[in-house]
């Protein structure tokens, strides 16, 4: 690697955010808080009752798959880094330093790591959560390094979990392991930092760690639709058609790069959670609903008769190869009953760092998540207030004392 993990720990401890970094942190905190609160009626809230804050808040925040994404690392950075930061009373600097570590570590693991079926959010997430928590606990570079090494045994997750509750839970496990590792490091637990390099080789790290640039190189993608990021572009492309009379749709064909299907493991979803990882369903739901919301990804929604009819008329074609979930373009072609066809193509999905949501679109997302009465509170909440809101909505186990800052 171009930089060692020791240099990465040094970088995290010395990190000083710019104004641009702080704006990114502001959006990330708001978005993460909103999507967590939007999940207040999901089964995972009951299933994680009584568990530690890091596990609980991460799993709940990720359960709708509505949280942001860092594309080069193919990972959900904010739900991990924000939850770990909030758990130990940290703020902007701790979050951004950890986010920077996760962006670089996940990118260094590479597309090949993801392509082999690893869930990079968990793989890179456990040592990264350790960074956020270690910084929040006031550890220096040596302590951060030991915390990362102590988190390595939990640094793994599988894409096969996608479409089940195991997906957000395994992200929660990784975050909790990182926070636990930082507490152990703060208490003096020892670890061999060389384990980090050994682990990196075992999970197939491909590239060097570049410590230059902003906190999060290439920025974060904020989702307008509550489903896998690989579906944001197909949904955006389908919305370019505008309203299409369903009784006039004879066929729907999607043309995508093969790599974009890597996380889309469900063709005919049987449950709402599976629909979040189904290309045919996402396009069908967009044709039916216009703008897919959480209501589009329920068990009842995937079983709608009009959806079943559209899925029977749907085909997916792939171009071989590609690298990443946004390789190439997404093309949607609709064949009509009168024999005509119409086609739309899209390169960048809405919410991509190069095509960010407009301020009013972000406000609309927050309002849709928490309602108009709570939207201002969420939009203006700082780190301490966000922690209080989450603790009130989703009380964690409090057997481990939280630090005072």
TrEMBL record:
Residues 52-197 form the MmgE/PrpD N-terminal domain. InterPro entries: MmgE/PrpD_sf (IPR036148), MmgE/PrpD_sf_1 (IPR042183), MmgE/PrpD_sf_2 (IPR042188), MmgE_PrpD (IPR005656), MmgE_PrpD_C (IPR045337), MmgE_PrpD_N (IPR045336). Coiled coil: none annotated. Residues 225-372 form the MmgE/PrpD C-terminal domain. PANTHER family: 2-METHYLCITRATE DEHYDRATASE, 2-METHYLCITRATE DEHYDRATASE-RELATED. Belongs to the PrpD family. This is MmgE/PrpD family protein. The lineage of its organism: Bacteria, Bacillati, Actinomycetota, Actinomycetes, Kitasatosporales.
């Amino acid at each position: 690697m171009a930089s060692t993990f020791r240099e990465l720990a040094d970088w995290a401890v010395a990190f000083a955010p710019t104004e641009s970094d702080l704006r990114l942190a502001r959006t990330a905190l708001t978005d993460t808080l909103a999507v967590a609160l939007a999940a207040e009626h999901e089964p995972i809230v009951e299933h994680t009752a009584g568990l530690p804050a890091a596990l609980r808040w991460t799993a709940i925040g990720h359960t709708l798959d509505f949280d942001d994404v860092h594309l080069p690392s193919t990972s959900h950075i904010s739900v991990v880094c924000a939850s770990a930061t909030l758990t130990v009373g940290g703020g902007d600097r701790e979050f951004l330093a950890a986010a920077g570590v996760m962006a670089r570590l996940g990118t260094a693991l590479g597309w090949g790591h993801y392509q082999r079926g690893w869930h990079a959010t968990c793989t890179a997430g456990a040592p990264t959560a350790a960074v956020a928590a270690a910084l929040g606990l006031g550890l220096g570079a040596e302590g951060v390094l030991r915390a990362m090494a102590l988190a390595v045994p939990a640094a793994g997750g599988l894409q096969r979990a996608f479409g089940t509750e195991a997906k957000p839970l395994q992200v929660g496990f990784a975050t909790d392991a990182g926070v636990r590792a930082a507490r152990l490091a703060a208490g003096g637990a020892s670890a061999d930092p060389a384990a980090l390099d050994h682990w990196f080789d075992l999970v197939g790290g491909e590239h060097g760690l570049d410590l230059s640039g902003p906190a999060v190189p290439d920025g974060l993608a904020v989702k307008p639709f509550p489903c896998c990021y690989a579906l944001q572009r197909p949904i955006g492309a389908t919305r370019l058609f505008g309203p299409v009379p369903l009784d006039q749709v004879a066929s729907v064909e999607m043309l995508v790069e093969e790599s974009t299907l890597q996380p889309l493991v469900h063709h005919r979803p049987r449950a709402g959670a599976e629909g979040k990882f189904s290309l045919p369903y996402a396009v069908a739901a967009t044709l039916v609903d216009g703008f897919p919301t959480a209501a589009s990804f329920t068990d009842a929604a995937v079983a709608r008769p009009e959806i079943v009819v559209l899925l029977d008329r749907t085909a997916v074609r792939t171009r071989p190869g590609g690298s990443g979930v946004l390789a190439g373009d997404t093309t949607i072609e609709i064949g009509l009953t009168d024999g005509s066809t119409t086609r739309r193509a899209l390169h960048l999905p809405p919410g991509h760092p190069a095509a960010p949501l407009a301020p009013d679109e972000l406000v609309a997302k927050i309002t849709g998540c928490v309602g108009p009465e709570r939207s201002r509170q969420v939009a203006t909440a700082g780190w301490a207030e966000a922690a209080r809101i989450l603790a009130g909505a989703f009380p964690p186990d409090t057997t481990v004392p939280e630090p005072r800052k």
